[in-house]
Amino acid sequence: MKTAQEKPIKKENLLDAAFELMMAKGYVATSVDEICEKAGTTKGSFFHYFESKEELAKALLTRQCVASQKIKEELFGKDPYKIVFGHIDMLIEMIKKPGGTKACIKGMLGQELSDTYPEIRKICANYFDKMANDFAQDLADARKQYGGNFDPHTLAKHFIAVLQGSYILAKVQGNNKVIVDNLEHFKKYLQTLIKK
Q: How does pLDDT run across 32-44, given as a tens digit for each residue?
């Protein structure tokens, strides 16, 4: 007999398996059969939770977007300078770790599926808009407290472009060093704009 906890665990297993496979191979090259095999479950279970692979991808993106927003004051305190640079330093440290990520699922699926899956494109676009707006607010707060002559919104979008472009380079080069190098360059640039 199934317990009340089994269903969410199986759903999370499917999402975890899909995340790992899609990060390695992309959306199109990942089959439902592979996701089920990796999750240790059946196709029946897959279709109990998701109507299609597209629905799973939307759920996966939504889960990743929510997880990405749980940072800020909990980790870095209330000083906007520490929030801005703490966020960048945290990314650098995560990428430096053995097996650190060479990609972002939102960027990968957004690039791969935007022309053919409008709902997935919209989820990715909304995530990047929120990311830009949140970082722009942190930058604006830091500018207000410490000074600086820059537009927080365009600078936040520049940061996203540097990060996502670096993920693409790391993927094709098979090496995370390019991400770390580019984030370090962006950090140095930012330090010329916000002088504490």
A: 999 999 999 999 9
Whole-angstrom distance, CA of residue 30 vs CA of residue 27: 5
Per-residue burial over 55-84, b if 16 or more Cβ lie within 10 Å, else e, is ebbbbbbeebbeeeeeeeeeebeebbbbbb
Q: Rounded to an integer, what distance in angstroms lies between the CA atom of residue 55 and that of residue 52?
A: 5
For residue 22, pLDDT over 80 is answered with yes
For the segment 136-156, the average pLDDT, to the nearest whole number, is 95
List CB contacts of 176: < 8 A, sequence separation 6 or more: 95, 96, 100, 101, 102, 170
Task: Provide the sign of the torsion angle of the four alpha carbons 99, 180, 162, 66, taken in this order.
Answer: positive
pLDDT exceeds 50 at position 185: yes
- Residue type for position 170: A
- The average pLDDT across 114-125 equals 90
Nearest partner of 192 among 138, 152, 150, judged by Cα: 150
Q: Sign of torsion, CA 8 64 179 96?
A: negative
